[in-house]
Design brief:
This protein is an alpha+beta fold. 25% of the residues lie in helices and 26% in strands. The structure holds flavin-adenine dinucleotide.
């Protein structure tokens, strides 16, 4: 077994596999190490895989819009299939319901700048297009076990409609598709091995050591360990200059039976949830961190309840039923728990570090599955620029998004940035 590579990637989630694919197809030798038994078994495996375009920054919107084009041309993006099949993008359209404090004009301006098609809808438009969705205003979100939760609505709300939003039908399989594409270019995936140490020499990374006693040497090491990102950064000893930090946050997503209607993606900060339909016609409901619900921050990313709870189920199902009054809520809990790797401002960190040769693609904050098609290229641009001797901290790398022709400034993802002004939740 060859234990030397140009690039070692820690983590074979959807982002790690994308990073591996970009470097492998650029002709670099790549080894990916993951402690799990296959691709996409970390946060990727729990992902709702929603594809939407509302982000607080131009770069965020542009990355999501470019990625959406790549998901639609997934086979072309990968240069082939995965034993004859691939994960699939389902175009459902999406509505982001208006909510107090939301910068609607700013969002629309970003859509105009990037070229994302959208329409502004009134409550009447929502009722006309999706009669089962009630555009009533309940803001602010309330705990579902409080009396106020059942208060009557105090008005109606409009929304922003993006016809091109949707979802990917199998998040882990999408990661596997990227693994297969990377393997076609020679990438070597090693599962069931935990990275336990990072070797350095004179301020530069030289390799890793794994729980199986292997030493793998490399020129470039990339931390794509999802909710374990901070653990790996501590092994590398790089956190001193990070202005933006990452923390694991437990999250639940529940599935409710559909009622035969076709639902779009609904981002509903008025009630503190999002939902989308599944290929089978059910509804997947997740939380949007409403202030009234305590957040489940984890001290240790491995120490959490992996099962959906009744409290989590009722919070999300009852909120969904306020928005879709005809919904049937079974008594049995059906859901999953996953973990976000949340950054200080809910924007990811795609960056170099002060340890030469050591890079990070972390802090994906519950909102970067959709951007997997472009993040591999982001890392490649940052690594190639830095390794060519340019100081990415001072002169940030720029990256051309090939399908939309937009160039983005990768300094926006810097670990040294002032925290961006964002929604402060999964919307990013
Ligand atoms: C419940 C939930 C819903 C979400 N919904 C959406 C959504 O609708 N849309 C969207 O865009 N995004 C969504 N996300 C976010 C998205 O899924 C993540 O941003 C994305 O999957 C992160 O991928 P990753 O490859 O960075 O991390 P992960 O998928 O977590 O992969 C990290 C990998 O690193 C491995 N690892 C960790 N430590 C070590 C170690 N020491 N040694 C070796 N391997 C290690 C793990 O085993 C894991 O496989 C959601 C996330 C969750 C949890």
């Amino acid at each position: 077994m060859n234990n030397t590579a140009d690039v070692v990637v820690i983590g074979a989630g959807v982002i790690g596999c994308s990073v591996a694919y970009e470097f492998a197809r650029a002709g670099r030798s790549v080894i990916v190490v993951d402690r799990a038994s296959g691709a996409g078994q970390g946060s990727t495996g729990a992902s709702s895989a929603v594809v939407r375009f509302n982000y607080s920054t131009f770069t965020g919107v542009a990355a999501a819009w470019e990625s959406r084009q790549a998901w639609e041309a997934w086979e072309e993006h990968l240069g082939g299939t995965d034993e004859g099949s691939l994960a699939k993008f389902h175009r459902t359209g999406g509505i982001v319901l208006d909510v107090e404090g939301m910068d609607i004009q700013g969002s629309c301006r970003l859509f105009d700048d990037v070229g994302v098609p959208y329409e502004r809808w009134t409550a009447t438009d929502i009722r006309h297009r999706f009669p089962s969705i009630d555009p009533a205003r309940y803001f602010p979100p309330k705990p579902v076990d409080s009396e106020e939760f059942w208060d009557a609505a105090d008005g109606e709300i409009g929304a922003t409609w993006t016809p091109d939003a949707g979802f990917i039908d199998d998040a882990s399989f999408a990661a596997h598709n990227l693994l297969a594409a990377a393997q076609r270019h020679g990438a070597d995936f090693r599962f069931g091995q935990t990275v336990v140490a990072i070797d350095t020499e004179q301020g530069r990374v030289t390799g890793i050591r794994t729980s199986k006693g292997d030493s793998i040497s490399c020129d470039v090491l990339i931390n794509v360990a999802g909710p374990h990102s901070a653990v790996i950064n501590e092994l590398a000893g790089v956190l001193d200059d990070f202005r933006i930090r990452t923390r694991p946050l437990r999250q639940e997503v529940h599935e409710l039976p559909g009622d035969g209607n076709e639902y779009p993606l609904v981002a509903d900060l008025d009630l503190g949830i999002y939902f989308r339909r599944t290929p089978a016609g059910n509804l997947l409901v997740g939380g949007a961190e409403p202030e009234c619900d305590p957040l489940e921050w984890l001290g240790d990313p491995d120490d959490f309840n992996p099962r959906a709870t009744r409290d989590g189920y009722e919070a999300q199902a009852y909120r969904a039923a306020r928005r879709v009054p005809e919904l049937n809520i079974p008594s049995a809990v059906r859901g999953i728990a996953g973990v976000y790797d949340v950054s200080s401002d809910w924007v990811p960190i795609y960056d170099r570090t002060n340890l030469d040769g050591y890079y990070v693609a972390i802090g994906t904050s519950g909102n970067q599955f959709k951007n997997a098609p472009v993040v591999g290229g982001f890392l490649r641009s940052i690594v190639e620029t830095t390794e060519a001797g340019v100081d990415h901290d001072q002169t940030p790398a720029h990256h051309l998004l090939p399908r939309t022709g937009i160039t983005v400034n990768l300094g926006d993802y810097s670990r040294l940035r002032e925290p961006s002004t964002t929604a402060g939740n999964v919307m990013g």
